[in-house]
């Protein structure tokens, strides 16, 4: 891992999430810190989201594979029907255990495992969605000193998910979709400048 303060970003989204990801992912530079995403999809859906986003993005966008090591410059997306977890050695694992918050993949499962692995070196982002998945995960990130961000519910196609997090936690930053990438890029540039 690099010596940067923040070493990974986890993103959770549900209803309306694809349009947001299609907006933000192409804006990240090629060698940005790794981004790991759960978007709720029907389990029998053949996901073409990674393939689609990869065509318009500078970062490599791919569906997560079991056992692969998380790398800078890559966006990993949970495959439909599998929970995506981050192990202590910063590899990815997949689980077909039961749904959590009626979802598999579950945002909470990703966020909680990432919080344990990355501790305070993690940024957790909750975007548009129509349930409360991700709230407990953001709480885990916050407890370990990570940074928490939610999409401004007023700008969300489905405001329930970010609003549930705001009702439960004191979130570090509430941002519109348009403000999200400039904020993250500025944060990454600032921490890069601080390195010796």
Structural overview:
The chain is α/β, with parallel strands linked by helices and 196 residues long. It has a single domain (8-190), classed as Methylesterase CheB, C-terminal domain (Rossmann fold, 3-Layer(aba) Sandwich). The chain is built from 6 helices and 9 strands, in the order βαβαββββαβαβαβα. The strands form 2 sheets. It has a 7-stranded parallel sheet. Strands 5-6 form a two-stranded antiparallel sheet. Strand 8 (147-151), helix 5 (160-168) and strand 9 (173-175) form a beta-alpha-beta unit. Helix 3 packs parallel to helix 4. The longest helix has 17 residues, at 177-193. The radius of gyration is 15 Å and the shape is globular. The two termini are 16 Å apart. The mean pLDDT is 92.
Compact description:
It catalyses: [protein]-L-glutamate 5-O-methyl ester + H2O = L-glutamyl-[protein] + methanol + H(+). This protein is α/β, with parallel strands linked by helices and 196 residues long. The protein is built from six helices and nine strands; from the N terminus they run βαβαββββαβαβαβα.
List the helices and strands and how they pair.
Blueprint (H helix, E strand, L loop, with lengths): L7 E6 L3 H8 L10 E5 L9 H8 L3 E4 L10 E4 L5 E4 L5 E4 L11 H12 L3 E5 L8 H9 L3 E5 L8 H9 L4 E3 L1 H17 L3
Parallel strand pairs: 1-2, 1-7, 2-4, 3-4, 7-8, 8-9
Antiparallel strand pairs: 5-6
Helix pairs in contact: 3-4
Which CATH architecture is right?
A: 3-Layer(aba) Sandwich
Mean of pLDDT: 92
CATH C-level class is Alpha Beta
| DSSP helical segment count | 6
SSE class: alpha/beta
CATH topology type: Rossmann fold
In the residues, how many domains can be counted? 1
Radius of gyration (Å) = 15 Å
SSE series: EHEHEEEEHEHEHEH
Cα separation of the termini:
16 Å
Helical percent range? Answer: 25-40%
Q: Strand order, main sheet: write it out.
A: 3-4-2-1-7-8-9
Tell me how many strands there are. 9
- The CATH superfamily is known as Methylesterase CheB, C-terminal domain
Low-confidence segments = none
Q: Biggest sheet, open or closed, and with what strands and sense?
A: 7 strands, parallel
Overall 3D shape: globular
